[in-house]
Input
Amino acid sequence: MKPLYIIPARGGSKGIPRKNIKPLGGRPLIAYSIDAARQAGAPDSHIILSTDDAEIADTARALGLEVPYTRPAHLATDTAGSREVILDAMDWADSRGIDYDCVVLLQPTSPFRTATDIHSALALYSPEVDMVVSVKEASANPYYNCFEADPATGYLHVSKGDGLITRRQDAPPAWEYNGAVYVINPGSIRRMPLGAFPRRVPSPMPADRSIDLDTPADWLMAEAVIKLMCNG
Output
């Protein structure tokens, strides 16, 4: 398999300003995703940092990664979709003759994802699926403790099933995306958005590696985890 790794890191982040180069455990956040791609076996020629920001690009260069690609300004806004960002990076790779048969999207906001997590997702991928996506066990299960209000009465009812399950472990497992690893079929993403993929395969990850940095509180949690790891 010949994955093309894309690390999306635009400059304008609002929840955590400048988060992609903000130091976490003494290292810029994007370093963790670059490391994970390299440790998974990716040559630097198959790692594309997709950024519009000169400081982010320079930070990656300081980590030894060449950054010949620049994300267009119209794909660096709050409204730019992931699919368009991925397609533009793919088009650039195609124009440079870079050979690949799947796309691995590594969001910098998942610093605890490991090379093993990437390998696990890649092992589940085949050209017959649209995407393998990393997941964690969902915090709410629609068969057990996730409820909806009946539009006619306003009364709550369990989202799925008959509502008779009394132990969480008896409910079918429910998953949520953790944002860490996406292994994408290049042909599928050219045909349709990620949310329209009918053939999505889950790649489970533990909760402690599924921290996704979106808010300042998430960042504090990540710093605490880093300290525990260093002291452990």
